[in-house]
C-alpha cells in the first residue's frame, strides 16, 4: 500500500488550534475590514496551501499543477457551452467536448491511480505471473483522493456550462480551502463558491464564531478523548498477532468500530466548525450513521458526500436502476467494490466494499418482499453487519481478520475476560484511572474494565443528538458552559498526549 507522509499539524494539534487557526482568521477578516476582498481570498489560498505543504512540501507542485490544469480544462469546457442555434457540441478543429471532458477525467484518474494503485497492481501481477518487478516506494500525496474527486465534479459541471463565471482565484480557493481539503467533504462548486462571493460572509460574525467553536470543540473531544483511546485497544487486538477469546475479539472489533466513528465524526465536526469561523457552511458529511435501521440508511448517513459522488458519477452512469433487475444488482455491487478500492489499494478494502454491495442487494430484495422488521432488530442486524465488515476494513491481512472473527464466534472462550495487553500510559487519562481502580478491583481486571465501560459509554453516546443537531438550536448559556468544559477537557487531553492523524487522511 502506498505510504502517506505524516506530520504534526492536524486539526487536533496545538499548532493548528493555538497558532495557525487564530492567525488565519484574524488576518482574513482584517483584510476584509480594510476592503481588500481579493487579497483576503488570496490569503486563504496561501494559508491553505501552507497547511497542505506543512505535511510534505514536495507534493505542493502536484496540487498546484492539478488546480491549473483542471481550471484550464473546466474554463475551456464552460466557455464552449454556447447557446448558438445548431451547436454541435464540438470545439475548434472538430474536437468533441465529450472527448475533452473524458480526457480531463482520465488525466485525474490516471494521476490518482499512479500514486494509489501502482504498487497494488504490481504486487498482484508479480503474484500471478511469478515475477519480481519493483518500483521505488511511492508516497501517497495527502488528500489526493479528495481533491481529485472534487475537481472531477467541477469538470462535469463545466461541461454543463455552470462554471464560466469563476476565475482562477475563486477556483483555487474552492479546491484548497483547508477545512475540507484533507479529508472532505467532497464539495460541489454550488455548495461553497457562491458563499465566498457573498457580502454576508466578509465580516466576523459572533453567532458563527460561537457556533463554530462549539462544534469544533465537540469534534476535538471526540478525536482526542474518545477515538484516540479506542485506538489503543483496537491496535492491540488487530496488530498483536495473538489469538483472541470471545470477549477480547468483540472488544477489539467494537473498539475499532467506535474509533473510526468518533475519529471521522470528530474530523467532520472540526471541519464544519473551522469553516464556520469564516462564515462558510460546509455540507453535512456525517449524520449519526450508527442510528441506521438498514444498510441503505447507513450509507445515507456515513460519508454522505462520497456516497453522493458514487451514486451520481458511477452508479447512475453504469445504468443505475434503469436496466434489468439483475443489472441493477450488478451496478450496486460494482459501485461499492470500487468504493471500497477508493479507500485503499488492498484486497481487504475490496472485500469490505463487496460486503456492503452484497448487503445493499439483500436489502433491496427484502424491500421488494415487503416484510417490515421490528426497529430494534433492524438496528441490531445493521450494526452487527457494519461492525463485522469493519473488521476487514481495519485488518492488514486476511489472517488478522480471520483471527478476530474466529474469536467473535468462539463461544468456548466465553468464560474468559482477557483482553489484549494495552499500557495505560497510552491513554489520554494517563494512568490515574487504573490507580483508582486498583483500590477496588483485582489487578487482573483493572486493564479490562475501562475498555468495557468505554464501549458501553459509546453505545449510549451514538444514540444521542449529534453536534449539528445540538448546535442547530440556539446556543444558550448552559450549552456554552458545556461547550467550554468539553473544549477544556479536550485541550488538556491533546496537550497531555500526542494525537494521531485522522484515519481518513490515509484514504
Automatic annotation (TrEMBL):
Known pathway: Glycan biosynthesis; alginate biosynthesis
Keyword Transport (UniProt): no
Gene Ontology molecular function: any one: acyltransferase activity
Pfam families documented for this protein: MBOAT (PF03062)
Main location: membrane
GO CC list: plasma membrane
Places the protein is found: Cell membrane
Any Gene Ontology biological process: alginic acid biosynthetic process
Transmembrane spans: 12-31, 38-55, 61-78, 99-117, 137-156, 168-188, 208-226, 238-258, 328-354, 375-393, 437-460, 480-505
UniProt keyword Acyltransferase present: yes
Membrane topology, from the record: Multi-pass membrane protein
Keyword field: Acyltransferase, Alginate biosynthesis, Cell membrane, Membrane, Transferase, Transmembrane, Transmembrane helix
Family under the similarity heading: Belongs to the membrane-bound acyltransferase family.
Protein name (Swiss-Prot/TrEMBL): Probable alginate O-acetylase AlgI
Species, as recorded: Acidovorax soli
Amino acid at each position: 500500500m502506498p505510504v502517506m507522509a505524516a506530520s504534526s499539524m492536524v486539526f487536533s494539534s496545538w499548532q493548528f488550534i493555538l497558532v495557525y487557526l487564530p492567525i488565519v482568521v484574524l488576518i482574513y477578516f482584517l483584510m476584509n475590514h480594510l476592503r481588500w476582498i481579493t487579497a483576503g481570498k488570496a490569503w486563504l489560498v496561501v494559508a491553505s496551501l501552507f497547511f497542505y505543504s506543512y505535511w510534505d512540501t514536495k507534493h505542493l507542485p502536484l496540487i498546484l499543477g492539478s488546480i491549473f490544469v483542471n481550471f484550464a480544462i473546466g474554463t475551456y469546457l464552460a466557455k464552449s457551452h454556447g447557446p448558438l442555434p445548431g451547436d454541435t457540441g464540438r470545439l475548434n478543429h472538430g474536437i468533441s467536448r465529450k472527448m475533452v471532458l473524458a480526457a480531463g477525467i482520465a488525466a485525474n484518474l490516471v494521476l490518482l491511480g499512479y500514486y494509489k494503485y501502482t504498487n497494488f497492481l504490481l504486487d498482484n501481477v508479480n503474484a500471478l505471473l511469478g515475477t519480481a518487478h519493483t518500483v521505488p516506494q511511492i508516497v501517497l500525496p495527502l488528500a489526493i483522493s479528495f481533491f481529485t474527486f472534487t475537481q472531477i465534479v467541477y469538470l462535469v459541471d463545466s461541461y454543463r456550462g455552470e462554471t464560466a463565471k469563476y476565475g482562477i482565484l475563486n477556483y483555487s480557493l474552492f479546491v484548497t480551502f483547508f477545512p475540507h481539503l484533507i479529508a472532505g467533504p467532497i464539495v460541489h462548486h454550488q455548495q461553497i463558491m457562491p458563499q465566498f462571493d457573498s457580502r454576508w460572509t466578509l465580516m466576523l460574525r459572533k453567532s458563527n464564531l460561537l457556533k463554530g467553536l462549539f462544534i469544533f470543540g465537540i469534534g476535538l473531544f471526540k478525536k482526542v478523548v474518545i477515538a484516540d483511546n479506542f485506538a489503543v485497544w483496537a491496535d492491540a487486538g488487530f496488530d498483536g498477532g495473538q489469538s483472541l477469546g470471545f470477549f477480547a475479539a468483540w472488544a477489539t472489533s467494537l473498539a475499532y468500530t467506535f474509533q473510526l466513528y468518533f475519529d471521522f465524526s470528530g474530523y467532520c465536526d472540526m471541519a464544519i466548525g473551522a469553516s464556520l469561523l469564516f462564515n462558510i457552511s460546509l455540507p453535512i458529511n456525517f449524520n449519526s450513521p450508527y442510528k441506521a435501521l438498514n444498510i441503505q440508511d447507513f450509507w445515507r448517513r456515513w460519508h454522505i458526500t462520497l456516497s453522493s459522488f458514487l451514486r451520481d458519477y458511477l452508479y447512475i452512469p453504469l445504468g443505475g436502476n434503469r436496466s434489468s433487475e439483475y443489472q441493477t444488482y450488478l451496478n450496486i455491487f460494482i459501485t461499492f467494490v470500487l468504493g471500497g478500492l477508493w479507500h485503499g489499494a488492498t484486497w481487504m478494502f475490496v472485500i469490505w466494499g463487496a460486503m456492503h454491495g452484497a448487503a445493499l442487494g439483500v436489502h433491496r430484495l427484502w424491500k421488494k418482499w415487503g416484510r417490515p422488521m421490528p426497529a430494534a432488530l433492524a438496528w441490531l442486524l445493521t450494526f452487527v453487519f457494519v461492525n463485522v465488515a469493519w473488521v476487514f476494513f481495519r485488518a492488514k491481512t486476511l489472517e488478522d481478520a480471520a483471527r478476530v472473527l474466529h474469536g467473535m464466534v468462539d463461544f468456548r472462550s466465553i468464560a474468559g475476560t482477557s483482553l489484549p495487553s494495552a499500557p495505560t500510559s497510552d491513554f489520554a487519562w494517563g494512568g490515574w484511572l487504573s490507580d483508582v481502580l486498583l483500590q477496588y478491583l483485582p489487578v487482573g481486571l483493572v486493564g479490562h474494565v475501562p475498555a468495557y465501560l468505554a464501549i458501553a459509554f459509546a453505545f449510549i453516546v451514538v444514540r444521542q443528538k449529534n453536534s449539528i443537531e445540538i448546535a442547530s438550536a440556539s446556543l444558550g448559556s448552559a450549552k456554552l458552559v458545556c461547550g467550554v468544559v468539553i473544549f477544556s477537557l479536550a485541550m488538556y487531553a491533546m496537550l497531555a498526549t500526542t494525537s494521531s492523524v485522522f484515519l481518513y487522511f490515509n484514504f
